[in-house]
Amino acid sequence: MSTFPEYNPDAQSLSIPTASSVQPEHQAVVTRDLVRTFGQKLAVNHLNLSVRSGEFFGFLGPNGAGKSTTIKMLVGLLRPSGGEVWVDGINVWQEPLRARAIMGVLPEYLNLYERLSGREFITFSGHMYGVSPADIERRREELLQVLDLSNDADKMIVDYSVGMRKKVALAAAIIHRPRVLFLDEPFEGIDPVSSRTVRDILQDLTHRGTTIFFSSHIMEVVERLCTRVGIINQGTLVAEGSLQELRDRAQGNHEGKDATLEDIFLNVVGARNENHNLSWLE
Ligand SMILES: Nc1ncnc2c1ncn2[C@@H]1O[C@H](COP(=O)(O)OP(=O)(O)OP(=O)(O)O)[C@@H](O)[C@H]1O
């Protein structure tokens, strides 16, 4: 049984932002009382998030917690039931075109143009974002090469594997050097070699000023990359901070200091000590 101490939401260092404590114009991503319902289901429950420029922010939560719903509202794909969203100081639902121009998006379900080749799709994306033809060509060829897609660049996307689709979608999402990049499960379906390449690209982007907001279930990746994480459960933000802050926030710092992100995650979503035995296997 784990000896990890109970998470104490009243601990002094708890820093989940309140609706009025954040100035949207000074942050990369801000949500204020963001709500989304689907019928009776409250998928996102008055979410107040704040991500500073240049941060690598990991957004975690169990299945069905509300991560994808939140990301879709942040990028202008799903209209909130209530609340507001700013990206780089732009109110996403008041100025959607301005907001879309400065962000890159890798959604959960990739809706790609299947009859285009990878090379054509990246070119198309570059034109959509107003990148010059010379820059499109230079950036596209480098992306294809770095992502190990050069040999398949003229094949239609319909014939791509899951990982290849993800990589071409990532290339299309960053060709305009977005100020804020949103990624929903970017590492799902990607092999270890490509995964390392994608990690390097993402880190390079943050070093050059791009803010990254990404969701993932892969704790080691989040632990390695993120400067800060937010954990959502049943639509509510239940923890937020750097890994060190989250560790410190666990009661009895002594035992909590070596906690992994997985320990912290299981603790705050209340899944640590549940019994998962199947009675019919006994
Ligand atoms: N279009 C929809 N219609 C009805 N309910 C929806 C819809 N989209 C999401 N939901 C519900 O909202 C809740 C949050 O779903 P969401 O996809 O945001 O979770 P998630 O955290 O991204 O989960 P996962 O890790 O499994 O991808 C779930 O209960 C889901 O069933």
Overview of this structure, please?
With 282 residues, the chain is an alpha/beta fold. The protein has one domain (24-270): 3-Layer(aba) Sandwich (Rossmann fold). The chain has helices at 67-74, 96-102, 118-128, 133-146, 162-174, 192-207, 219-225, 243-249, 253-256, 261-268, and strands spanning 29-38, 41-51, 56-60, 82-87, 90-91, 103-106, 180-184, 211-215, 228-233, 236-241. The two termini are 21 Å apart. The chain binds adenosine-5'-triphosphate. Adenosine-5'-triphosphate binds at residues 38, 41, 43, 61, 63-69.
Distance, first to last CA: 21 Å
Structural class: alpha/beta
Ligand names: adenosine-5'-triphosphate
Average pLDDT, to the nearest integer?
Answer: 87
Give the low-confidence spans.
1-15
Along the chain, the helix and strand elements come as EEEHEEHEHHHEHEHEEHHH
Number of strands: 10
Determine and state the CATH class: Alpha Beta
Q: How would you write the strand order of the largest sheet? A: 6-7-8-3-9-10
Our count of domains comes out at 1
| Biggest sheet layout | 6 strands, mixed
Strand percentage, roughly?
A: 15-25%
CATH superfamily: P-loop containing nucleotide triphosphate hydrolases
CATH architecture: 3-Layer(aba) Sandwich
GO molecular function: ATP binding; ATP hydrolysis activity
Keywords: ATP-binding, Nucleotide-binding, Transport
Protein name: ABC transporter ATP-binding protein
Pfam family, one: ABC_tran
Reconstruct the topology from this structure.
Blueprint: E1 29-38, E2 41-51, E3 56-60, H1 67-74, E4 82-87, E5 90-91, H2 96-102, E6 103-106, H3 118-128, H4 133-146, H5 162-174, E7 180-184, H6 192-207, E8 211-215, H7 219-225, E9 228-233, E10 236-241, H8 243-249, H9 253-256, H10 261-268
Parallel strand pairs: 3-8, 3-9, 6-7, 7-8
Antiparallel strand pairs: 1-2, 1-4, 4-5, 9-10
The protein binds adenosine-5'-triphosphate.
Adenosine-5'-triphosphate is lined by residues 38, 41, 43, 61, 63-69.
Protein name: ABC transporter ATP-binding protein
Region (Disordered): 1-20
InterPro entries: AAA+_ATPase (IPR003593), ABC_transporter-like_ATP-bd (IPR003439), ABC_transporter-like_CS (IPR017871), ABC_transporter_ATP-binding (IPR050763), P-loop_NTPase (IPR027417)
